[in-house]
Protein backbone atom coordinates (compact mmCIF):
# COMPACT_ATOMS: atom_id res chain seq x y z
CA UNK A 1 0.00 0.00 0.00
CA UNK A 2 2.92 2.33 0.68
CA UNK A 3 3.96 2.13 -2.98
CA UNK A 4 0.45 2.91 -4.24
CA UNK A 5 0.33 6.20 -6.19
CA UNK A 6 -1.59 8.97 -4.50
CA UNK A 7 -3.50 9.95 -7.64
CA UNK A 8 -4.54 8.62 -11.02
CA UNK A 9 -2.47 11.36 -12.72
CA UNK A 10 0.71 10.12 -11.03
CA UNK A 11 -0.09 6.58 -12.11
CA UNK A 12 -0.48 7.81 -15.69
CA UNK A 13 2.87 9.62 -15.52
CA UNK A 14 4.62 6.56 -14.07
CA UNK A 15 3.09 4.29 -16.69
CA UNK A 16 3.99 6.64 -19.53
CA UNK A 17 7.55 6.96 -18.23
CA UNK A 18 8.08 3.21 -17.87
CA UNK A 19 6.66 2.62 -21.33
CA UNK A 20 8.71 5.35 -23.04
CA UNK A 21 12.08 4.94 -21.24
CA UNK A 22 13.05 1.67 -23.04
CA UNK A 23 12.25 3.28 -26.38
CA UNK A 24 14.34 6.32 -25.47
CA UNK A 25 17.26 4.06 -24.49
CA UNK A 26 17.02 2.28 -27.83
CA UNK A 27 16.99 5.60 -29.67
CA UNK A 28 20.02 6.82 -27.71
CA UNK A 29 21.88 3.54 -28.31
CA UNK A 30 21.14 3.60 -32.03
CA UNK A 31 22.12 7.27 -32.22
CA UNK A 32 25.50 6.63 -30.57
CA UNK A 33 26.12 3.59 -32.78
CA UNK A 34 25.36 5.55 -35.94
CA UNK A 35 27.47 8.51 -34.78
CA UNK A 36 30.43 6.22 -34.01
CA UNK A 37 29.98 4.47 -37.33
CA UNK A 38 29.86 7.79 -39.17
CA UNK A 39 32.98 9.01 -37.38
CA UNK A 40 34.83 5.78 -38.05
CA UNK A 41 33.77 5.83 -41.66
CA UNK A 42 34.90 9.42 -42.07
CA UNK A 43 38.34 8.63 -40.62
CA UNK A 44 38.72 5.56 -42.81
CA UNK A 45 37.69 7.43 -45.93
CA UNK A 46 40.05 10.35 -45.27
CA UNK A 47 42.93 7.96 -44.55
CA UNK A 48 42.20 5.95 -47.68
CA UNK A 49 42.00 9.11 -49.81
CA UNK A 50 45.28 10.42 -48.36
CA UNK A 51 47.13 7.14 -48.93
CA UNK A 52 45.71 6.73 -52.41
CA UNK A 53 46.68 10.29 -53.36
CA UNK A 54 50.19 9.86 -51.88
CA UNK A 55 50.73 6.50 -53.61
CA UNK A 56 49.58 7.92 -56.93
CA UNK A 57 51.90 10.93 -56.60
CA UNK A 58 54.86 8.70 -55.64
CA UNK A 59 54.19 6.46 -58.61
CA UNK A 60 54.13 9.44 -60.98
CA UNK A 61 57.26 10.92 -59.38
CA UNK A 62 59.17 7.61 -59.74
CA UNK A 63 58.28 7.39 -63.40
CA UNK A 64 59.33 11.00 -63.97
CA UNK A 65 62.67 10.39 -62.20
CA UNK A 66 63.29 7.28 -64.27
CA UNK A 67 62.59 9.17 -67.52
CA UNK A 68 64.60 12.28 -66.63
CA UNK A 69 67.50 10.25 -65.15
CA UNK A 70 67.96 7.99 -68.18
CA UNK A 71 67.69 10.99 -70.54
CA UNK A 72 70.30 12.86 -68.49
CA UNK A 73 72.81 9.97 -68.79
CA UNK A 74 72.51 10.22 -72.55
CA UNK A 75 72.18 13.97 -73.20
CA UNK A 76 74.20 15.34 -70.24
CA UNK A 77 71.71 18.24 -70.03
CA UNK A 78 71.67 19.99 -66.65
CA UNK A 79 68.02 20.97 -67.14
CA UNK A 80 67.09 17.30 -67.06
CA UNK A 81 68.98 16.92 -63.80
CA UNK A 82 67.02 19.81 -62.35
CA UNK A 83 63.75 18.18 -63.43
CA UNK A 84 64.93 14.94 -61.90
CA UNK A 85 65.62 16.66 -58.57
CA UNK A 86 62.15 18.31 -58.65
CA UNK A 87 60.51 14.91 -59.18
CA UNK A 88 62.64 13.51 -56.35
CA UNK A 89 61.44 16.32 -54.05
CA UNK A 90 57.82 15.58 -55.06
CA UNK A 91 58.41 11.94 -54.24
CA UNK A 92 59.75 12.79 -50.76
CA UNK A 93 56.74 14.99 -50.05
CA UNK A 94 54.33 12.25 -51.15
CA UNK A 95 56.33 9.65 -49.19
CA UNK A 96 56.06 11.75 -46.01
CA UNK A 97 52.27 12.09 -46.55
CA UNK A 98 51.96 8.34 -47.13
CA UNK A 99 53.92 7.51 -43.97
CA UNK A 100 51.78 9.95 -41.92
CA UNK A 101 48.58 8.21 -43.04
CA UNK A 102 49.58 5.12 -41.06
CA UNK A 103 50.37 2.43 -43.62
CA UNK A 104 50.57 -1.23 -42.76
CA UNK A 105 53.92 -2.89 -41.94
CA UNK A 106 54.03 -4.42 -45.42
CA UNK A 107 53.55 -1.00 -47.01
CA UNK A 108 56.26 0.44 -44.77
CA UNK A 109 58.72 -2.18 -46.05
CA UNK A 110 57.71 -1.38 -49.64
CA UNK A 111 58.22 2.31 -48.86
CA UNK A 112 61.67 1.66 -47.37
CA UNK A 113 62.79 -0.44 -50.35
CA UNK A 114 61.45 2.23 -52.71
CA UNK A 115 63.47 4.90 -50.92
CA UNK A 116 66.62 2.69 -51.01
CA UNK A 117 66.33 2.07 -54.76
CA UNK A 118 65.77 5.76 -55.53
CA UNK A 119 68.70 6.76 -53.31
CA UNK A 120 70.94 4.24 -55.05
CA UNK A 121 69.80 5.50 -58.48
CA UNK A 122 70.54 9.12 -57.51
CA UNK A 123 74.08 8.12 -56.48
CA UNK A 124 74.69 6.18 -59.70
CA UNK A 125 73.32 8.90 -61.93
CA UNK A 126 76.59 11.04 -62.21
CA UNK A 127 78.73 7.93 -62.67
CA UNK A 128 76.58 6.54 -65.45
CA UNK A 129 76.62 9.90 -67.23
CA UNK A 130 80.45 9.67 -67.27
CA UNK A 131 80.30 6.19 -68.86
CA UNK A 132 79.56 3.99 -65.87
CA UNK A 133 77.42 0.81 -65.73
CA UNK A 134 74.01 1.80 -67.10
CA UNK A 135 72.31 -1.55 -66.34
CA UNK A 136 72.60 -1.08 -62.57
CA UNK A 137 70.86 2.30 -62.84
CA UNK A 138 68.08 0.86 -64.97
CA UNK A 139 67.69 -2.00 -62.46
CA UNK A 140 67.31 0.45 -59.57
CA UNK A 141 64.67 2.46 -61.47
CA UNK A 142 62.85 -0.73 -62.45
CA UNK A 143 62.81 -2.00 -58.87
CA UNK A 144 61.67 1.42 -57.63
CA UNK A 145 58.81 1.44 -60.14
CA UNK A 146 57.79 -2.03 -59.02
CA UNK A 147 57.74 -1.00 -55.36
CA UNK A 148 55.62 2.09 -56.21
CA UNK A 149 53.16 -0.07 -58.11
CA UNK A 150 53.00 -2.49 -55.14
CA UNK A 151 52.18 0.42 -52.89
CA UNK A 152 49.45 1.61 -55.29
CA UNK A 153 48.00 -1.90 -55.45
CA UNK A 154 48.10 -2.34 -51.67
CA UNK A 155 46.36 0.98 -51.19
CA UNK A 156 43.58 -0.01 -53.59
CA UNK A 157 43.14 -3.33 -51.82
CA UNK A 158 43.13 -1.53 -48.48
CA UNK A 159 40.37 0.77 -49.70
CA UNK A 160 38.29 -2.22 -50.79
CA UNK A 161 38.87 -3.86 -47.41
CA UNK A 162 37.82 -0.71 -45.54
CA UNK A 163 34.67 -0.42 -47.66
CA UNK A 164 33.84 -4.05 -46.87
CA UNK A 165 34.45 -3.41 -43.16
CA UNK A 166 32.17 -0.38 -43.24
CA UNK A 167 29.46 -2.43 -44.95
CA UNK A 168 29.82 -5.16 -42.34
CA UNK A 169 29.69 -2.60 -39.55
CA UNK A 170 26.58 -0.97 -41.06
CA UNK A 171 24.88 -4.38 -41.31
CA UNK A 172 25.81 -5.13 -37.69
CA UNK A 173 24.31 -1.80 -36.56
CA UNK A 174 21.15 -2.55 -38.55
CA UNK A 175 20.78 -5.99 -36.97
CA UNK A 176 21.47 -4.57 -33.51
CA UNK A 177 18.85 -1.88 -34.02
CA UNK A 178 16.25 -4.42 -35.17
CA UNK A 179 17.10 -6.70 -32.23
CA UNK A 180 16.80 -3.85 -29.73
CA UNK A 181 13.49 -2.70 -31.21
CA UNK A 182 12.10 -6.25 -31.23
CA UNK A 183 13.18 -6.65 -27.64
CA UNK A 184 12.06 -3.29 -26.29
CA UNK A 185 8.86 -2.71 -28.28
CA UNK A 186 6.98 -5.73 -26.83
CA UNK A 187 8.26 -4.73 -23.40
CA UNK A 188 6.95 -1.19 -23.83
CA UNK A 189 3.63 -2.50 -25.15
CA UNK A 190 3.36 -4.91 -22.20
CA UNK A 191 4.09 -2.10 -19.74
CA UNK A 192 1.56 0.15 -21.50
CA UNK A 193 -1.11 -2.58 -21.39
CA UNK A 194 -0.36 -3.24 -17.73
CA UNK A 195 -0.80 0.39 -16.79
CA UNK A 196 -3.87 0.74 -18.99
CA UNK A 197 -5.40 -2.11 -17.00
CA UNK A 198 -4.25 -0.59 -13.71
CA UNK A 199 -5.75 2.76 -14.71
CA UNK A 200 -9.01 1.60 -16.31
CA UNK A 201 -9.85 -1.22 -13.87
CA UNK A 202 -10.63 1.05 -10.88
CA UNK A 203 -12.45 3.48 -13.17
CA UNK A 204 -14.48 0.60 -14.60
CA UNK A 205 -15.18 -0.63 -11.07
CA UNK A 206 -16.40 2.85 -10.14
CA UNK A 207 -18.64 2.87 -13.21
CA UNK A 208 -20.06 -0.53 -12.23
CA UNK A 209 -20.61 0.65 -8.67
CA UNK A 210 -22.42 3.79 -9.81
CA UNK A 211 -24.52 1.78 -12.28
CA UNK A 212 -25.34 -0.71 -9.52
CA UNK A 213 -26.48 2.08 -7.22
CA UNK A 214 -28.52 3.52 -10.07
CA UNK A 215 -30.16 0.13 -10.66
CA UNK A 216 -31.00 -0.18 -6.98
CA UNK A 217 -28.38 -2.77 -6.00
CA UNK A 218 -27.72 -1.79 -2.40
CA UNK A 219 -26.57 -5.23 -1.21
CA UNK A 220 -23.23 -5.61 -3.05
CA UNK A 221 -20.34 -3.97 -1.13
CA UNK A 222 -18.28 -1.46 -3.09
CA UNK A 223 -14.50 -1.99 -2.89
CA UNK A 224 -12.27 -0.17 -5.38
CA UNK A 225 -8.52 -0.92 -5.49
CA UNK A 226 -6.17 1.54 -7.14
CA UNK A 227 -4.64 4.98 -6.57
CA UNK A 228 -5.56 6.65 -3.31
CA UNK A 229 -7.88 9.22 -4.88
CA UNK A 230 -9.83 6.51 -6.76
CA UNK A 231 -9.89 4.25 -3.69
CA UNK A 232 -11.12 7.21 -1.63
CA UNK A 233 -13.89 7.78 -4.16
CA UNK A 234 -14.80 4.10 -3.86
CA UNK A 235 -14.97 4.51 -0.07
CA UNK A 236 -17.34 7.43 -0.52
CA UNK A 237 -19.53 5.32 -2.79
CA UNK A 238 -19.55 2.58 -0.15
CA UNK A 239 -20.60 5.19 2.40
CA UNK A 240 -23.34 6.31 0.00
CA UNK A 241 -24.50 2.70 -0.43
CA UNK A 242 -24.73 2.23 3.33
CA UNK A 243 -26.53 5.54 3.62
CA UNK A 244 -29.03 4.55 0.92
CA UNK A 245 -29.51 1.20 2.64
CA UNK A 246 -30.26 2.98 5.88
CA UNK A 247 -32.67 5.36 4.14
CA UNK A 248 -34.39 2.44 2.40
CA UNK A 249 -34.77 0.60 5.68
CA UNK A 250 -36.08 3.77 7.32
CA UNK A 251 -38.57 4.28 4.49
CA UNK A 252 -39.89 0.73 4.75
CA UNK A 253 -40.11 1.03 8.52
CA UNK A 254 -41.96 4.32 8.18
CA UNK A 255 -44.41 2.91 5.63
CA UNK A 256 -45.08 -0.18 7.73
CA UNK A 257 -45.54 1.89 10.85
CA UNK A 258 -47.69 4.41 9.03
CA UNK A 259 -49.87 1.73 7.45
CA UNK A 260 -50.31 0.09 10.84
CA UNK A 261 -51.18 3.38 12.50
CA UNK A 262 -53.62 4.30 9.74
CA UNK A 263 -55.27 0.89 9.59
CA UNK A 264 -56.37 1.06 13.22
CA UNK A 265 -58.55 4.20 12.92
CA UNK A 266 -59.68 3.16 9.43
CA UNK A 267 -60.82 -0.18 10.79
CA UNK A 268 -62.72 1.57 13.56
CA UNK A 269 -64.34 3.94 11.03
CA UNK A 270 -65.31 1.06 8.75
CA UNK A 271 -66.72 -1.07 11.56
CA UNK A 272 -68.64 1.91 12.93
CA UNK A 273 -70.06 2.61 9.49
CA UNK A 274 -71.08 -1.04 9.11
CA UNK A 275 -72.80 -0.98 12.49
CA UNK A 276 -74.66 2.16 11.53
CA UNK A 277 -75.54 0.63 8.18
CA UNK A 278 -77.08 -2.35 9.94
CA UNK A 279 -79.27 0.05 11.94
CA UNK A 280 -77.84 -1.07 15.30
CA UNK A 281 -79.30 1.09 18.05
CA UNK A 282 -81.70 3.31 16.09
CA UNK A 283 -83.25 3.88 12.70
CA UNK A 284 -81.45 5.83 9.95
CA UNK A 285 -83.00 7.92 7.28
CA UNK A 286 -82.29 7.46 3.55
CA UNK A 287 -79.90 10.41 3.48
CA UNK A 288 -78.14 9.11 6.57
CA UNK A 289 -77.82 5.65 5.01
CA UNK A 290 -76.22 7.20 1.93
CA UNK A 291 -73.71 9.10 4.06
CA UNK A 292 -72.87 5.91 6.02
CA UNK A 293 -72.43 4.04 2.71
CA UNK A 294 -70.06 6.74 1.42
CA UNK A 295 -68.03 6.63 4.64
CA UNK A 296 -67.76 2.82 4.48
CA UNK A 297 -66.75 2.70 0.78
CA UNK A 298 -64.16 5.44 1.08
CA UNK A 299 -62.63 3.88 4.20
CA UNK A 300 -62.25 0.60 2.27
CA UNK A 301 -60.75 2.47 -0.68
CA UNK A 302 -58.30 4.30 1.60
CA UNK A 303 -57.29 1.01 3.23
CA UNK A 304 -56.62 -0.57 -0.18
CA UNK A 305 -54.57 2.47 -1.20
CA UNK A 306 -52.44 2.17 1.95
CA UNK A 307 -51.90 -1.54 1.32
CA UNK A 308 -50.94 -0.86 -2.32
CA UNK A 309 -48.45 1.80 -1.28
CA UNK A 310 -46.84 -0.60 1.15
CA UNK A 311 -46.75 -3.32 -1.52
CA UNK A 312 -45.15 -0.93 -4.02
CA UNK A 313 -42.44 0.08 -1.54
CA UNK A 314 -41.65 -3.59 -1.05
CA UNK A 315 -41.61 -4.11 -4.81
CA UNK A 316 -38.83 -1.54 -5.17
CA UNK A 317 -36.62 -3.44 -2.73
CA UNK A 318 -34.10 -6.17 -3.74
CA UNK A 319 -35.25 -9.73 -4.37
CA UNK A 320 -34.04 -12.34 -1.89
CA UNK A 321 -32.01 -14.76 -4.03
CA UNK A 322 -32.34 -17.60 -1.53
CA UNK A 323 -36.15 -17.39 -1.67
CA UNK A 324 -36.41 -17.81 -5.43
CA UNK A 325 -38.08 -21.08 -6.42
CA UNK A 326 -39.08 -22.78 -9.63
CA UNK A 327 -42.74 -21.84 -10.08
CA UNK A 328 -45.25 -23.10 -12.64
CA UNK A 329 -46.49 -19.92 -14.27
CA UNK A 330 -49.19 -22.00 -15.92
CA UNK A 331 -50.65 -23.03 -12.55
CA UNK A 332 -50.56 -19.42 -11.31
CA UNK A 333 -52.51 -18.17 -14.35
CA UNK A 334 -55.03 -21.05 -14.14
CA UNK A 335 -55.74 -20.44 -10.46
CA UNK A 336 -56.28 -16.74 -11.10
CA UNK A 337 -58.63 -17.41 -14.00
CA UNK A 338 -60.67 -19.71 -11.75
CA UNK A 339 -60.95 -16.93 -9.17
CA UNK A 340 -62.30 -14.56 -11.85
CA UNK A 341 -65.18 -16.85 -12.92
CA UNK A 342 -67.77 -14.85 -10.98
CA UNK A 343 -66.59 -11.60 -12.58
CA UNK A 344 -66.63 -13.21 -16.00
CA UNK A 345 -70.23 -14.40 -15.49
CA UNK A 346 -71.43 -11.03 -14.22
CA UNK A 347 -70.29 -9.31 -17.42
CA UNK A 348 -70.93 -12.25 -19.81
CA UNK A 349 -67.29 -12.19 -20.87
CA UNK A 350 -65.80 -14.76 -23.25
CA UNK A 351 -62.42 -16.21 -22.24
CA UNK A 352 -60.05 -17.69 -24.86
CA UNK A 353 -56.95 -19.35 -23.44
CA UNK A 354 -53.93 -21.18 -24.82
CA UNK A 355 -51.62 -22.09 -21.93
CA UNK A 356 -48.43 -24.08 -22.40
CA UNK A 357 -46.69 -25.64 -19.39
CA UNK A 358 -44.05 -23.06 -18.45
CA UNK A 359 -41.87 -22.85 -15.33
CA UNK A 360 -39.97 -19.76 -14.24
CA UNK A 361 -37.74 -18.86 -11.27
CA UNK A 362 -39.39 -16.46 -8.82
CA UNK A 363 -41.62 -15.95 -5.80
CA UNK A 364 -45.14 -17.31 -6.02
CA UNK A 365 -46.72 -14.26 -4.37
CA UNK A 366 -44.90 -11.84 -6.70
CA UNK A 367 -45.72 -13.85 -9.83
CA UNK A 368 -49.32 -14.04 -8.70
CA UNK A 369 -49.41 -10.27 -8.17
CA UNK A 370 -47.99 -9.65 -11.67
CA UNK A 371 -50.49 -11.90 -13.43
CA UNK A 372 -53.37 -10.74 -11.22
CA UNK A 373 -52.83 -7.12 -12.23
CA UNK A 374 -52.88 -8.00 -15.94
CA UNK A 375 -55.95 -10.25 -15.70
CA UNK A 376 -57.89 -7.92 -13.38
CA UNK A 377 -57.31 -5.02 -15.77
CA UNK A 378 -58.62 -7.08 -18.69
CA UNK A 379 -61.76 -8.08 -16.74
CA UNK A 380 -62.53 -4.62 -15.36
CA UNK A 381 -62.03 -2.67 -18.56
CA UNK A 382 -63.87 -5.15 -20.81
CA UNK A 383 -67.44 -4.21 -21.76
CA UNK A 384 -70.37 -6.64 -21.62
CA UNK A 385 -70.10 -9.71 -23.92
CA UNK A 386 -66.44 -8.91 -24.82
CA UNK A 387 -63.65 -11.45 -25.33
CA UNK A 388 -60.48 -11.77 -23.26
CA UNK A 389 -57.55 -13.70 -24.75
CA UNK A 390 -54.81 -15.20 -22.55
CA UNK A 391 -51.86 -16.85 -24.30
CA UNK A 392 -48.86 -18.41 -22.49
CA UNK A 393 -45.95 -19.88 -24.47
CA UNK A 394 -42.17 -20.29 -24.61
CA UNK A 395 -40.40 -17.99 -27.07
CA UNK A 396 -36.69 -17.21 -27.42
CA UNK A 397 -35.92 -18.98 -24.11
CA UNK A 398 -38.44 -16.77 -22.31
CA UNK A 399 -41.89 -17.27 -20.86
CA UNK A 400 -44.29 -15.02 -22.79
CA UNK A 401 -47.75 -14.21 -21.38
CA UNK A 402 -50.09 -12.19 -23.63
CA UNK A 403 -53.30 -10.72 -22.18
CA UNK A 404 -55.65 -8.98 -24.65
CA UNK A 405 -59.01 -7.37 -23.96
CA UNK A 406 -61.60 -5.44 -25.98
CA UNK A 407 -61.94 -2.50 -23.64
CA UNK A 408 -61.22 1.18 -24.31
CA UNK A 409 -57.47 0.50 -24.47
CA UNK A 410 -54.75 3.05 -23.68
CA UNK A 411 -54.52 6.41 -25.42
CA UNK A 412 -51.23 7.01 -27.33
CA UNK A 413 -50.30 9.94 -25.06
CA UNK A 414 -50.65 7.65 -22.02
CA UNK A 415 -48.47 4.77 -23.22
CA UNK A 416 -45.35 6.12 -21.48
CA UNK A 417 -47.21 6.99 -18.27
CA UNK A 418 -49.34 3.87 -17.75
CA UNK A 419 -46.62 2.21 -15.61
CA UNK A 420 -45.98 5.31 -13.47
CA UNK A 421 -46.89 5.25 -9.79
CA UNK A 422 -50.34 6.66 -8.93
CA UNK A 423 -51.16 7.32 -12.59
CA UNK A 424 -54.75 6.61 -13.61
CA UNK A 425 -55.61 6.77 -17.28
CA UNK A 426 -58.48 8.50 -19.00
CA UNK A 427 -60.28 5.18 -19.37
CA UNK A 428 -60.45 4.81 -15.59
CA UNK A 429 -61.79 8.32 -15.11
CA UNK A 430 -64.26 8.13 -17.98
CA UNK A 431 -65.57 4.74 -16.87
CA UNK A 432 -65.64 5.70 -13.17
CA UNK A 433 -63.55 2.59 -12.43
CA UNK A 434 -61.92 2.85 -9.05
CA UNK A 435 -58.22 2.19 -8.73
CA UNK A 436 -55.12 3.34 -6.93
CA UNK A 437 -52.90 3.61 -9.99
CA UNK A 438 -50.32 1.32 -8.36
CA UNK A 439 -51.11 -2.06 -9.92
CA UNK A 440 -49.07 -1.79 -13.13
CA UNK A 441 -46.29 0.09 -11.30
CA UNK A 442 -45.99 -2.77 -8.81
CA UNK A 443 -46.14 -5.38 -11.58
CA UNK A 444 -43.42 -3.59 -13.58
CA UNK A 445 -41.13 -3.39 -10.51
CA UNK A 446 -41.58 -7.11 -9.84
CA UNK A 447 -40.92 -8.01 -13.48
CA UNK A 448 -37.76 -5.88 -13.64
CA UNK A 449 -36.47 -7.52 -10.45
CA UNK A 450 -36.52 -10.86 -12.33
CA UNK A 451 -34.76 -9.45 -15.39
CA UNK A 452 -37.92 -9.58 -17.49
CA UNK A 453 -40.08 -7.02 -19.30
CA UNK A 454 -43.69 -5.83 -19.23
CA UNK A 455 -44.85 -3.88 -22.28
CA UNK A 456 -47.99 -2.47 -23.83
CA UNK A 457 -48.10 -3.62 -27.47
CA UNK A 458 -49.94 -2.18 -30.45
CA UNK A 459 -53.27 -3.79 -31.25
CA UNK A 460 -55.24 -3.41 -34.48
CA UNK A 461 -58.61 -4.03 -32.83
CA UNK A 462 -59.94 -2.01 -29.86
CA UNK A 463 -58.57 -2.89 -26.46
CA UNK A 464 -55.25 -3.27 -24.65
CA UNK A 465 -52.52 -5.89 -25.23
CA UNK A 466 -50.05 -6.43 -22.41
CA UNK A 467 -47.11 -8.77 -22.95
CA UNK A 468 -45.10 -10.20 -20.05
CA UNK A 469 -41.67 -11.76 -20.62
CA UNK A 470 -39.77 -13.67 -17.90
CA UNK A 471 -36.54 -15.75 -18.10
CA UNK A 472 -37.02 -19.52 -17.93
CA UNK A 473 -35.53 -22.07 -15.57
CA UNK A 474 -33.17 -24.74 -16.88
CA UNK A 475 -35.98 -27.27 -17.09
CA UNK A 476 -38.91 -26.09 -19.17
CA UNK A 477 -41.60 -28.46 -20.38
CA UNK A 478 -42.32 -28.62 -24.12
CA UNK A 479 -45.17 -26.56 -25.49
CA UNK A 480 -47.51 -29.48 -25.82
CA UNK A 481 -47.25 -30.70 -22.21
CA UNK A 482 -50.16 -29.33 -20.13
CA UNK A 483 -51.22 -29.61 -16.54
CA UNK A 484 -54.60 -31.13 -15.89
CA UNK A 485 -57.17 -28.38 -16.31
CA UNK A 486 -59.27 -28.38 -13.16
CA UNK A 487 -61.45 -25.47 -14.14
CA UNK A 488 -61.84 -26.04 -17.85
CA UNK A 489 -59.87 -22.89 -18.76
CA UNK A 490 -57.37 -24.23 -21.34
CA UNK A 491 -57.52 -23.95 -25.11
CA UNK A 492 -61.17 -23.12 -25.40
CA UNK A 493 -63.71 -20.33 -25.12
CA UNK A 494 -66.06 -19.86 -22.19
CA UNK A 495 -68.92 -17.40 -21.78
CA UNK A 496 -69.90 -17.05 -18.17
CA UNK A 497 -72.33 -14.50 -16.59
CA UNK A 498 -70.24 -12.64 -12.60
CA UNK A 499 -69.53 -10.22 -9.96
CA UNK A 500 -67.50 -7.07 -10.23
CA UNK A 501 -64.06 -7.24 -8.53
CA UNK A 502 -63.08 -4.60 -5.96
CA UNK A 503 -59.35 -4.24 -6.53
CA UNK A 504 -58.24 -1.99 -9.38
CA UNK A 505 -54.83 -2.13 -11.03
CA UNK A 506 -54.71 0.10 -14.08
From TrEMBL:
* Chief place of localization: membrane
Q: Which reaction does it catalyse?
A: ATP + protein L-histidine = ADP + protein N-phospho-L-histidine
A GO CC annotation recorded here is: plasma membrane
Q: Which cofactor does it need?
A: Mn(2+); Mg(2+)
InterPro entries on file:
2C_sensor_his_kinase, HAMP_dom, HATPase_C_sf, HATPase_dom, His_kinase_dom, HisK_dim/P_dom, HisK_dim/P_sf, Sig_transdc_His_kin-like_C
Q: Which UniProt keywords apply?
A: ATP-binding, Cell membrane, Hydrolase, Kinase, Magnesium, Manganese, Membrane, Nucleotide-binding, Phosphoprotein, Protein phosphatase, Stress response, Transferase, Transmembrane, Transmembrane helix, Two-component regulatory system, Virulence
Q: Where are the transmembrane segments?
A: 12-38, 178-199
Histidine kinase domain location is: 257-474
Topology of the protein relative to the lipid bilayer: Multi-pass membrane protein
According to the entry, every stretch annotated as the HAMP domain falls at 197-249
Against SMART domains, the record matches this protein to: HAMP, HATPase_c, HisKA
Localization per record: Cell membrane
Give the domain of life.
Bacteria
Q: Which GO terms describe its molecular function?
A: ATP binding; phosphoprotein phosphatase activity; phosphorelay sensor kinase activity
Coiled-coil segments: none
**What PROSITE patterns does this protein's entry cite?**
HAMP, HIS_KIN
Q: EC number(s) for this protein?
A: 2.7.13.3
Matches recorded under PANTHER family: SENSOR PROTEIN CREC (PTHR44936)
Name of the protein: Signal transduction histidine-protein kinase/phosphatase MprB
Report the source organism: Acidithiobacillus ferridurans
